[in-house]
Each structure stands twice: as C-alpha cells, then as structure tokens.
Amino acid sequence: MSQSQKTRTTVDIYGQQYSIIGSESTSHIRLVASIVDDKMREISGKNPTLDINKLAVLTAVNVVHEYIKLKEENEELVKQLEKVLNEKD
C-alpha cells in the first residue's frame, strides 16, 4: 500500500497524544484509541499506583485476553453453524 493511501490520525490515549498512520478510516482509528483509553482508565481506577508502563502492559494483556475469548467464541459459533448447515443436506 502506498503512503498516499494511508491516513494520519491524532488521538488521545490516557492523556497522551499519538499520531497513528494506517489504512483504516479515521473513525475506526478513533474507536480503537477510545477503547484503549477506556481500558487503561478502567485498570488504573482499580490499581491507581501503577506506573504508565505497567498500566500499558496490563491493558495489552487484558485486551488480548478479550480478543482470544471472542475468537474462540467465534470459532465455536462457526462450527455450530457448519453442523446445522450439514444437517440440512
């Protein structure tokens, strides 16, 4: 993908500004940043003494955990759908 097809979006995550360059829409990038910001604030609220580095790592661990759980649920639903579709044949 060429540089001209990428967009630059400035977002605020946990009080810091980041310039993100990517092929996704600005609204998508802002949504992702908002979710990361919300998760960091949630974790910080439960653990106010965490430094920013530990907070960032715990946020990443939590988000990846949620991703894996959703991926597993999706795979199970696909298997169930395939089973139903095969039973129809």
Coarse shape = flat
Overall tally of domains: 1
Please tally the β strands and state the result: 2
What is the beta-strand fraction?
15-25%
Class inferred from helices and paired strands? alpha+beta
Between the first and last Cα atoms, what is the distance in angstroms?
Answer: 42 Å
SSE order: EEHH
Unreliable spans are none
- The strand order across the widest sheet is 1-2
Continuous helix count: 2
Overall mean confidence score, pLDDT: 94
Level of helix content? 55-70%
Largest sheet: 2 strands, antiparallel
Alpha carbon gyration radius: 18 Å
Commentary on this structure:
This protein has 89 residues and is an alpha+beta fold. It has one domain. Helices cover 65% and strands 16% of the residues. The chain is built from two helices and two strands; from the N terminus they run E-E-H-H. It has helices spanning 26-46, 52-88, and strands at residues 7-13, 16-22. It has a two-stranded antiparallel ribbon. Helix 1 (26-46) crosses helix 2 (52-88). The mean pLDDT is 94.
